[in-house]
Amino acid sequence: MAINKWKHAPITREYEARVKKLLKGELKRQGITYGQLAERLVAIGVDETARNLTNKISRGGFTAAFLLQCLIAIGSRGIQLDDPAHHRSSQND
């Protein structure tokens, strides 16, 4: 079985942290709890509990499909992505 070297690479961890922050930020902006998100996901056919969501989102290593399902369930119309080059340079300041 092939080993995914990229999975544990520092750059991968950086992007996992960014996507976790993005999703948590969207939930906060919309005033939606994990329990409410679980209910909204069930309504679109995605079976997740609040506890599963807490664990999955805290890890940050979820799929793009899961992120999209959450954004749709939340009712997000768009997301603002920061410039990764700016993100890295601001961390070094």
> What fraction of residues sit in β-strands?
under 5%
- Care to count the β-strands? 0
- State the end-to-end CA separation: 41 Å
Task: Name the helicity range.
Answer: 55-70%
Coarse shape: globular
Structural class: mainly alpha
The helix tally amounts to: 5
Q: How many domains in all?
A: 1
Rounded radius of gyration (Å): 15 Å
Mean pLDDT: 85
Low-confidence runs of at least 5 consecutive residues: none
What would you note in describing this structure?
- It is built from five helices and no strands.
- The protein has 93 residues and is mostly helical.
- The protein has one domain.
- Helix 1 (10-30) runs parallel beside helix 4 (64-74) and helix 2 packs across helix 3 (50-59).
- The longest helix is centred in the N-terminal third of the chain and has 21 residues, at 10-30.
- The radius of gyration is 15 Å and the shape is globular.
Topology summary:
Elements (H helix, E strand, L loop, with lengths): L9 H21 L3 H10 L6 H10 L4 H11 L9 H8 L2
Provide tags for this entry.
single chain, 93 residues, mainly alpha, 5 helices, 0% strand, globular
